[in-house]
TrEMBL record:
PROSITE patterns named among the record's database cross-references: MFS
Record bears the keyword Transit peptide: no
Main location: membrane
Compartment list: Cell membrane
InterPro entries reported for this sequence: MFS_dom, MFS_trans_sf, TM_effector
Residue ranges occupied by any Major facilitator superfamily (MFS) profile domain in the UniProt entry: 13-403
Entry membrane topology: Multi-pass membrane protein
Domain of life from the UniProt record: Bacteria
Keywords per UniProt: Cell membrane, Membrane, Transmembrane, Transmembrane helix, Transport
Transmembrane stretches, start-end: 21-39, 51-72, 84-103, 147-170, 231-252, 258-280, 287-306, 312-331, 352-372, 378-400
UniProt name for this protein: MFS transporter
Length: 407
């Protein structure tokens, strides 16, 4: 951007009526989603007594994206993104209602959570690429970067409120009500999508079906450094650093002994930092590959440092800084990949990015759960941060040498 935005324009994309309605519904949905995630993970831990089981739940929820993510991007390029998002919201409401009914009647078992997590993963295959690309239809290219930052801010504000409410619900009335509230929130999202003014959408013409569409998107993404390297770093961060709730569950239960309320607090501290990072990213003038690499390196370094925290207050402070660095990385990578992609192929490119980012968590969840259970939470946290930090350092060195050769 040519200059830094005035403070009153930090969230200027909200001046667009359609995006304002979408962002409000998204905020309600994210609060409820985080309530469900925290309740789900804690209930699995209580029912099974195993951190690995929590990791398996995460894996099942993200595995479909790893296997079918590009297909979801193909659908986003070929069909109405608004209709796809409405269908996904209704399907998510049905899954949440099923979980809530089982939990409130006392019939919930671990295998129920596994099965519904897998179904939600199937919904995510379509939801994520359509949601990423739909932002451009809501605000147009002029406000795209700002709208991505607003979406991140909304998500993190929901992540700030949701875990705190979930921790209270778990101790007061049980996790079943968190699932029920998420079902209602999903229906609110579906209604909000129906209330958008369709004549004000910047709708890209659907891409006609042709052979080799996914192969074309992969080749397009790989030959652009501003897509290839964020994609690579996102894979490393996703596998090792983005299943942090699994490790926080282990710290809450086995290291600090603070129970469900403490688990909600730890997730809230991450969200506090992430919310600050999202606001900072909305005001950033320069967007470059260097920002992405630096964000990934700092994120990993802070996680590794948190593994050495001597007390709960120090640990809380460090995970808050971790959340800040994570959001700088994730928002920068998302913005760089989207703005580097042609609109006609953006759905497929973003599905590949989402496949790596979310699908990597399908591998990382069980891996970190296993490490925490067999080597201890501290060792697992050290691996979680150390590997991304080393990967970012290595990529930074490669890019620095390439720049010197060009000079």
């Amino acid at each position: 951007m040519p200059e830094r935005l005035p403070w009153r324009h930090t969230f200027i994309s909200l001046s667009v009526r359609n995006f304002r309605l979408f962002a409000a519904a998204h905020f309600v949905a994210v609060v409820a989603l985080w309530m469900q995630r925290i309740a789900q993970d804690w209930i699995v831990l209580e029912l099974s007594g195993s951190v690995t089981a929590v990791g398996v739940t995460v894996a099942l929820q993200f595995l479909p994206v790893l296997l079918l993510g590009p297909w979801g991007g193909l659908m986003a390029d070929r069909f109405s993104k608004r209709r796809l998002l409405q269908g996904c919201a209704v399907a998510s409401a049905v899954c949440a209602a099923a979980l809530g009914t089982l939990a409130l009647t006392g019939a919930l078992a671990v295998w129920h959570v596994y099965g519904i997590a897998l179904l939600l993963g199937m919904v995510t295959v379509l939801d994520q690429p359509a949601r990423q690309v739909f932002v451009n239809e809501l605000v147009g290219p002029a406000y795209l970067r700002n709208a991505i930052s607003v979406n991140s801010t909304t998500f993190q504000l929901g992540a700030l409120i949701g875990p705190a409410v979930a921790g209270w619900l778990l101790t007061a009335v049980g996790g079943g009500w968190a699932f029920a509230m998420n079902a209602v929130a999903c229906l609110v999202t579906a209604c909000a999508l129906g209330a958008l003014r369709r004549d004000e959408l910047t709708v890209a013409p659907p891409t006609p079906k042709s052979p080799g569409m996914l192969r074309e998107a992969f080749a397009y993404a790989w030959r652009k450094p501003t897509i290839r390297w964020p994609w690579t770093l996102a894979g490393v961060v996703a596998v090792f650093a983005m299943s942090l709730p699994v490790l926080l569950a282990a710290y809450a239960e086995h290291v600090f002994g603070v129970g469900a309320a403490g688990y909600g607090l730890l997730n809230t501290m991450v969200a506090v930092g992430a919310l600050t990072g999202a606001i900072a990213s909305a005001r950033r003038v320069r967007l470059s590959l260097r920002t992405v690499v630096l964000g990934a390196g700092l994120h990993g370094s802070m996680l590794a440092l948190a593994a050495l925290a001597p007390s709960l207050p120090v640990f809380c402070a460090l995970v808050a800084v971790t959340g800040f660095c994570a959001l700088l990385f994730l928002t920068s990578a998302n913005q760089l990949v989207q703005t580097s992609s042609n609109v006609g192929i953006r759905g497929r490119v973003m599905s590949l990015y989402t496949m790596v980012l979310i699908g990597g968590q399908a591998l990382g969840g069980p891996l970190l759960g296993w490490l925490a259970e067999h080597l201890g939470a501290h060792a697992a946290m050290l691996v979680s941060g150390g590997v991304p930090a080393l990967a970012a350092g290595a990529l930074g060195l490669v890019l620095w040498r390439a720049a010197r050769r060009r000079v």
